[in-house]
Amino acid sequence: MADRGGTSSGGGGNGAPELAKKSRKPKYSRFSQQELPACKPILTPGWVITAFISIGVIFIPIGLASLFASQRVVEIVDRYDRDCIPRNVSDDGVGFIEDAKANKTCVRTLTVQKQMKSPIYVYYQISNFYQNHRRYVKSRDDKQLWSPKNERSSSDCKPEDFTSNGQPIIPCGLIAWSMFNDTYKFSVKDKVLEVNKKGIAWKSDREHKFGSDVYPKNFQSGALIGGAKLNSSIPLSQQEDLIVWMRPAALPTFRKLYGKIEVDLEPNDNITVIIENNYNTYSFGGNKKLVLSTTSWMGGKNDFLGVAYLTIGGLCLFLAISFILVYVLKPRPLGDPSYLSWNRNAAGHLN
Asked: Quick one: three-class SS letters along 278-338?
């Protein structure tokens, strides 16, 4: 009879060893198994209450300081897009703006409520303008803005890339084409207030994004004018209005810096503003505002940061007091920490 204990595998009966089974078990290391020495604090009531009190004690003074600084900022906001249209065409703002023969000059009077120390920052504010739209943001050519060797714009600038004669437009794209073109002139008691437009753009943009040897070319030369025109004799690195505009805003309501007034304004001063109402926000239902603002150590007027710090700090103090009352009125014994796994076994595993 044949030996039933013999091997039945093909290739002879030499007793070849069985192939080792493949294991998916990862290679052991203390790091991968989270067995390295670590701080594992036990959140006792005392630690939790102390942490909440510390956060409250730190956050509340910061919130008060931020809120106080924001309240010290003096701000004048004037919406002028509705009042700067004649009453007889108030229902047709688009037609008024597009009429080249219409007088766009508008005179506004602003009253200073509190002393405004220089520098006083002049902003224009636009709402319902989505500069963060993907196609709008991409409609530019950074290489063209930096070097005259790259004046042949990329396809991202369409339809504002070339003129009808095939000449490149510098700067190309919808962002530059739609540049804000309202103008403001200020005076107090018949004394002109000069607006300084130097240093209103980021230094990094002036020095690293816009070339000192790149000049506007064929800009706003088509039949449809989108916004402001540029002086072809001034390089892009010195045209700070353009540089400010070409940094797209993240939200549909935004402010951009127009310039700085470098004299103090006293309470009850009446500022006469001559506005050239040229920019078309009427076609997309937006509005325009003129903003004059001072600054503090934390920037412009913004109560949100101070309110946020006060809210978090007050909430932490409220929770700390609540935990103290609960701990005093209904105390519970703390469990024995020696039963925790990392205390029973140095490797972090149960025996």
From this structure: CCCCHHHCCCEEEEEECCECCECCCCHHHHHHHHHHHHHHHHHHHHHHHHHHCCCCCCCHH
